[in-house]
Amino acid sequence: MFAMENLRVASYAPHGAMAAHSHDEASLGVILAGDFVERVANSERRYGGGYVTFAPAGVTHSQRFGALGARQIIVRPQAAWLAYLCECRVNLADSLYVRAPVFLQLGQKLLDELNHDDDFSPVASEGVMLEIVAAFGRADRLAAGSSPPPWLARTRDFLHAHAADSPSMKEIAHAAGRHEIHLAREFRRHFGMSVGSYLRKLRTERAAHLLQHTRSNITDVALDCGFASHSHLCRVFKAHFGISPSRYRAQN
After folding, report:
1. Are 56 and 63 a contacting pair, CB within 8 Å?
2. Which pLDDT value is given to residue 147?
3. Are 67 and 15 in contact (CB under 8 A)?
């Protein structure tokens, strides 16, 4: 399971600066807002919202922040992600950077998951990060369109069958017979949402069905659908349907 402590949001003051430094571990930066100039060796790069940057371990760099400061999500990449990028022939020895509209969208989704912070957040955050890694490695946009291939349709069926079991991205990818990054990219391309969001939707819709067609109390419905508690169901249910479970039952 993805560890949420591998993600953090960093904010930088206007006109601030960071002296030359390096890190013991590699990192990915998803820049959400603001702007800054980074100096790496003898080159300077100007970043703004919608950039993703890769900082190799041990590479010295410095930053100067603009009038609005900056905000970014800093991610410690998993070894499997780095191996995938190498398979895509990405030169990880370089301090790479890529800009695309999709990174702003995915960065905001990742920030939303960090703020949401429920039992679904680790798998949902991992799914978004895998999409970011895939787009970074291939430097293309995720396109919507064609019907899902058979393996992806089977993956969707697996999610329907195991929605209450909290499967990890690794388990879902194993069932799909695909790499986790490939799964995350293709799932959103065909279904318009991340794997974690789809699981949350399935559980919430099952809860709505039970509220409408059974007399089970709301706590039992929550536990049966894989939610941690009555309050957890209420929070997610209201975000999805706009009303509380009790009001939904009363209206149906």
Report:
1. no
2. 62
3. yes
| 17-62 tens-digit pLDDT | 999 999 999 999 999 998 899 998 777 888 888 889 999 888 899 9
- The pTM (predicted TM-score) of the whole model is 0.61
Residue 89 in 3-state DSSP?
A: coil
How many C-beta atoms surround the C-beta of residue 111 within 10 A? Answer: 18
CB proximity list for 153: less than 8 A, separation 6 or greater: none
Which residues make Cβ contacts (< 8 Å) with residue 59, sequence separation at least 6? Answer: 22, 40, 95
The ranges assigned to domains in the chain are 4-99, 121-198, 203-251
CB atoms within 10 A of CB 75: 21
Q: Are the beta carbons of 72 and 32 closer than 8 angstroms?
A: yes
Is the model's pLDDT at 72 over the cut of 90? yes
Say whether 26 sits in a helix, a strand or coil.
coil
**Cβ-proximal residues to 100 (8 Å cutoff; 6+ apart), any chain:** 50, 135, 139, 141
Q: Is 145 left (phi over 0), alpha (psi -120 to 50) or beta?
A: left
What is the pLDDT confidence band of residue 76, given thresholds at 50, 70 and 90?
A: very high
CATH fold of 4-99 = Jelly Rolls (2.60.120)
| Domain 203-251 = CATH 3.40.720.10 | no
22-42 as b/e, with b when 16 or more CB fall inside 10 Å? eeeebbbbbbbebbbebebee
Tokens at residue 5, please?
């402590």
